[in-house]
Amino acid sequence: MEQDHYRGPSFSTIAGSGSNGAVIHYRPSEETNAAVNDSAVLLVDSGGLYADGGTTDITRTFFFGAEPPAEVVDSYTRFFTHSDGGKTSLKTHSSNFERAGS
To answer: SS3 of 86, please?
Structure first.
């Protein structure tokens, strides 16, 4: 369902798998492409532009395997607790990851 005041994306969607997810404003290329798989994190950043001038910016982190490795959970948790979102609400580590199919 499209919203009445939605005017389009506020920026081009950014999606990076594995180490590409750590690259600010990552753009895929033949040299850097990485397949999405069940052992790497996929980071997706997107946003919307609205008629009143408002914009959104939303970042989602996905893991398609059974459980993310401990070092991935630790890194994600450290980042999240130091970001704006982590200052107001920190869930248990693994529940912060979006699960494929959920």
So the answer is: helix
